[in-house]
Amino acid sequence: MSKQIDARKIWLVAAERTNPNIPASLTGANAYKTRGIDYKAYDGDKKEKQYDGDSGQDVPVKIENAFNSFNFKIDLAPSGTAGEVPFADLFLRVCGMVASIDEAAGTVTYAPATTPDQIAMLDACVSHLADDDVDYVIKSERMRGQLGITIKAGEDPEADVQLQGDYIRPVTAAHAAPVFGLQDTQMAIPANAQNTPIFKINNKGICVEDFSIKNLSGYTPSRRNMPGGCKYTAMKKGIVEADITFMEPDWANEFNPYELAETDDGVKRVPFILQHGTVAGKKFSIECPEVQFIQPEKAEIDGDVGRKATIRFLKPLALMWLC
Asked: How far is the C-alpha of 199 from the C-alpha of 287, rounded, in Å?
C-alpha cells in the first residue's frame, strides 16, 4: 500500500567525519534548518551495451559510479557568541574553506583551502516523516561539495549548498525527532542600508540590489570510483566569480563602471569589501585584495537604470565572522 507523506516534513542531519574510514554518528547530531532541500539517491553514469545480434530493444542500462547528492539552502546566521563558528561552519569546511579562529579578537575567518587534503568531510541523512511515525531515510557518507552565497536587498543572506557522497541504499527507521539547537534563536538579518553598511569596489561605495558568489572556495566536487579501492569525492580548484546588480553610480564623482572594466591598458586589479551586520556577534565581511570588474551591462531596478556585471576574484577571498 502506498504511503502518503507530507513533503514539508523533511529535514537534514549532518556530522563531521573526522576519519575517512570510520562513519560519523548521526545519533543526536545537529539538524539544520534548510529551504528547498532536494536530493538524488543512486545517481551516477548511465551506461548501455548493445551486443552484436541484438534486436535493438533488449538494451539494459547500468548505473556506474553511483553516488548520492543533497542540494539545499541555509541562512547565513551567526552563532551570536564571540569566537564561535556560525551555523554554516560545517558546510563551509566541506565545501573547500578552512576556518581560523582568533579568540582574542573574537573572529572566525574562512579562506579557501590550499590543498584538497585540508577539506573536511561529513556524513548526513535526509529524512521524510510518514504519518505512522516512520522515517524514510536517505543517507550518504564522506560528502563534500560546493557552496555559494547570495545577498539580496530586503532578504536574509543565504548559502546554496550542493553536496555529493557515497551511495547508501535508503531505508526506513523509527522516527527520531530533529534537534535544531540555537538555530531557532540566532536568526539571520536582512540585507538593507542599516544592516549592510559597507559594499565597496575599488574603495568606492555602491548600492547593491543583488550579489551572488557562485562557488565561494572555487573547489568543485567530482566522484571517483577506481580499481584499488579508490572511492571518494575529489575536489578540483577553479575560478571564483560573482554576479552583481547595482544602482547606477555617479560616473563623474564616484566611478565609471566601464572605465573599471577596460583592459586595453591592462587588467585593473581593485579591492573588494562588503560588511553585513553592525552588532557584535551578528556580522560578517567578505574581502578580497584583487578583483576584476568584467563587462558591465544595463539593468533595470524597480524602473530605475542600474548595471550588472561579473566580478572575478583574482586572489583568495576571506569570509570573516566578526564577533
From this structure: 10
Q: Concatenated DSSP letters for 90-109?
A: HHHHHTTEEEEEETTTTEEE
CB 308 within 8 A of CB 299: yes
Calpha distance 122→233 (Å, rounded):
11
Which three-class secondary structure state does DSSP give residue 283? strand
Give the position of cell 547565513.
Answer: 76
CB 31 within 8 Å of CB 179: yes
C-alpha to C-alpha distance for 295 and 257, rounded to whole angstroms: 9
Residues paired with 43 in a beta bridge: 67
pTM score of the predicted model: 0.94
Q: What is the DSSP secondary structure assignment for residue 181, as one 8-state letter?
A: G
d(CA 110, CA 318): 6
Count helices and strands in the chain by DSSP H and E runs: 2, 20
CB half-sphere exposure, 214, CA atoms < 13 A: 13
The C-alpha atoms of residue 166 and residue 176 are separated, in whole angstroms, by 23
Check whether 289 has a pLDDT greater than 80.
yes
Whole-number pLDDT of residue 323? 60
Task: Note the pLDDT tens digit of each residue in 144-170.
Answer: 999 999 999 999 999 999 999 999 999
> Alpha helices, DSSP H only, in the chain?
89-94, 257-261
Q: Name the DSSP letter for residue 57.
A: S
End-to-end CA distance of the chain: 53
Q: Is 261 helix (H, G, I), strand (E, B) or coil?
A: helix
Q: How far is CA 300 from CA 6, 244, 305, in A?
A: 39, 13, 5
Q: Mean pLDDT over residues 221-242, rounded?
A: 92
Predicted local distance difference test score (pLDDT) of residue 66: 94
Distance from C-alpha of 275 to C-alpha of 197, rounded to nearest angstrom: 6
Query: CA-to-CA distance for 65 and 152, rounded, in angstroms?
Result: 37
Cβ atoms 128, 141 nearer than 8 A: no
